[in-house]
Write a structure and sequence with these properties.
6-stranded antiparallel β-sheet; alpha+beta; 2 domains
């Protein structure tokens, strides 16, 4: 994250329709892509202030149109609303030019909320399933043609395979040697997944990054409030959102856990999560339900493959705290992928029982 003074951040924030005063800023470091700050008036948190990474999200205007359009639908008594704060000229983001061009946005902060990186609590898993279901139900009103792909081919297995193969050709020999076990696993799973054929799946506007810490919960009640970080909101299939949630809810270990015996597939958490989905009105087709276990394998594998590819390419996409962090992420994600493969029949039984 680039270092900013409170004075510089206050100058940037003054381009938005917020009361004119000196605010305090606390950097939030959980995200890998954008620079994010919690804005305080004294001790009271009021806003989320973000610098959008335009090197990852190259069409910032299209991205912000997606977010603005989605917020119009994401209002319900069981879904907490987040409001985009307009710029002084009525826009949804501010384009700052001073040397490098930067893009900034401001959103309201939900006081009394929290997020979890992992959980062992079935209630949290249930609430996560319930809010993800509600999110998808509310966005059924959205017209997919009104949304751009903020990261084209984000979950396209063929595209990620091609990137991986290119990295294998250009990667340094020492990195290729260090990552050999991950590379071997990737080849095996790519072959296995290529045999899966999905058809007749409806196009939805999906979140596409439904890891557990992208869900806000009430600190008091643990009730799920809403989803955050909508930069990847675009066209997709429901099994993307399902699989991405499963990889961080059913596994109680961190994403880059190096002790792989700690990586789990907790069945009680999986069943609580599916129960949460089922607590909503029925919104899934039979074909979507059948694809869900496949999504729980695909999504951790795709994330692991992307981390492996980035490691081989020299860590150019994800922020890393140390040289081999992307490889550790990859190995952890591949370990969970293997556990999901071993539990595929179990997942098929549960989703059919609870959602068909």
């Amino acid at each position: 994250m680039k270092t900013y003074t409170d004075k510089a951040l206050n100058q940037l924030l003054s381009n938005f329709r917020v009361p004119s005063k000196d605010y305090l800023f606390k950097p939030l470091t959980d995200g890998f892509i954008n620079d994010t700050f919690l804005v305080f008036d004294g001790s009271k948190p009021l806003y989320i202030f973000q610098r959008v990474n335009h090197k990852v999200f190259t069409n910032v205007e299209g991205l912000m149109n997606n977010v603005r359009n989605a917020f119009q639908h994401l209002t319900d008594e069981d879904y907490r609303e987040i409001v985009l704060v307009k710029t002084q000229d009525g826009g949804s983001f501010y384009k700052h030019k001073n040397g490098e061009t930067c893009y900034w946005r401001t959103m309201t902060y939900i006081n009394g909320s929290t997020a979890y990186n992992t959980t062992t609590d079935p209630k949290v898993a249930f609430e996560a399933g319930k809010i993800i279901g509600k999110f998808n139900i509310l966005l059924q009103q959205a017209n997919p043609d009104d949304y751009i792909d903020t990261i084209p081919k984000f979950h396209d297995l063929g595209y990620r395979k091609a990137q991986f193969q290119a990295a294998l050709k250009s990667g340094e020999k020492t990195k290729l040697d260090t990552a050999q076990s991950a590379i071997t696993f990737a080849h095996r799973v790519l072959k296995e997944l290529s045999n899966e054929a999905l058809s007749n799946l409806p196009i939805r506007i999906c979140h596409n990054d439904t890891k557990l810490n992208n869900i806000l919960f009430s600190k008091k009640t643990q009730k799920a409030l809403c989803l955050i970080d909508l930069d990847t909101l675009m066209r997709g299939h429901f099994h993307y959102d399902f699989g991405d949630a499963v990889r961080t809810i059913v596994n109680t270990a961190p994403e880059d856990e190096q002790e792989h015996e700690k990586i789990t597939f907790e069945k009680k958490l999986f069943e609580a999560f599916v129960d949460g989905l089922a607590a909503n009105e029925n919104f899934l087709s039979n074909e979507e339900v059948k694809a869900m276990p496949w999504g729980a394998i695909l999504m951790p594998f795709l994330h692991g493959l992307r981390a492996l590819t980035d490691y081989l390419n020299g860590n150019v996409y994800y922020k890393v705290a140390y040289e081999n962090q992307n490889l550790d992420r990859c190995l952890s994600l591949f370990s969970f992928t293997q556990k999901a493969l071993e539990n595929k029949a179990y997942m098929e039984e549960i989703v059919q029982e609870k959602l068909s």
